[in-house]
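Input.
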Amino acid sequence: MQEILSHGYIALFIIIAFGMIIGRIKIFNFSLDISAVIFVALLLGHFGFLVSDDFMKVGLLLFIFTIGIQAGPGFFEAFKKYGRALIVTTLIALFSAALASLAITKAFNIDPNLSIGILNGALTSTPGLAAAIESTNSPLAPVGYGIAYTFGVVGVIILVNLLPAIFRIDLKKEEIKFEEGLKEDNPELIGKSLKVENPNVDNKKIFDLHLSQMADVVISKKLENNLVSPITKDTILNIGDIVRVIGTRESIEKAKLIIGDECDFEFPVTQATEAEWILVTNKKIINKRYSEIGLGKNYNATVIRIRRSGIEIPPKPSSIFRFGDKLRVTGDHSSLNMAKKLLGNNTKKLSHTDFLPIALGVLLGIALGFINIPIGGFTFNLGMTGGTLAAGIALSRLGKTGPIIWSMSGEANQLLRELGLLLFMAAVGTKAGATFLDTVHDYGYSLIIISVVLTIVPVLTGALAGHFIFKINFLTLLGVITGAMTSTPGLAVVNAKSDTNAAPIAYATVYPVALVFIIIISQVLPRL
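Output.
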């Protein structure tokens, strides 16, 4: 039996299986979820079972890349709107860790080189450790890192599980608030019937009025002489016509000023004006603007809604086709069939997972991680984790390069993300578990307590600042905290608690800031 279990791949599946079983056990409505895997790994690691570092690296790369792909579409918008609050919260958390480390070093007369290693271990920052070693040339930095690393990994997992209870937060309510916030940023689209009353639009073509630019609305159909007709490139408005306008409440109010007042007419469903949801899966049109394709002018079909990542957004000439978008298109039967051929509408393509962009994206991320960036007299690089995260965010934003689509279905992303995480936590756990008790025995409990303190202080400080000062949504705040702590396992725990992108987007937003700060502070603290 011992010989069988000595094989790393067998130990890997044992850890995953028993970790998932234990993670589903609930005590007072609390469960460890996927994080139970690392505790099983710690136990088996103590008894000599090891999972290869290769599994850890593959798992980390898959997890981080899929997080980048998942977070990318909302990353830049979130950064513009919430970036300052998220980054300041991160800096407050990390400053508190640095000050606590400095105070402990002075109070207990600990060697600064050992202390900076403990700090980096508590923050699970390998790039920070590398900067500390480069700066100090001391063997004590990695020793301190080894002492604190286990507590940095496990402590963050425990804390992010406990924080909602400590702050009395209902994460389901926070999830609803987050989704409501998304809806506020992307107001619900509605349809209204307007009567043409403005003489300035009389006898003019709809396409010449540029309503999508002036009022951010789309006209889907028209009633004239008791006949309902779809909108084509030649459709003309006349006084007394009634048109169906699609847009937000605010944009429809603008349209009233241009067209005329609202009326109670309900447009009947006729064969002449069908409407269908059509899926964008044609690679040839990805990243092209709607104005370039000209569905209205060339196909007599009108896009009245875009559904992307569960959010409906109004179409504009400047809107860009994204793989997996669902478009609500109106027109006659013939026009809709032509639109389907153009847009693709192939559900099999959407569910199919192409591993070429995944492999290329990860390779690009690794390459980015090796690029040295000069800052303030020294250089640093993003490392494998930061580079892969940056690549995922950038590629998901890019959408397409030639024939390669930089996206994947939600189901495929979730599967690869969880697989990568399980591999990573199993390998990290066995490695940490192998030296856990020896570390405690060799260095005593005082350094262990310091490690615990340096893990707890930034988490609690960041949580207090983010919750009470900046009023950050708690799911987003948990993503900020795990990003500040550069804790991939911690992010995984939060991710398992919600189906929203709140935590991954926040993690991706603050992670680079945390990385740079830790590297700088690792150079500065030993000299104070």
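The mean pLDDT is 85.
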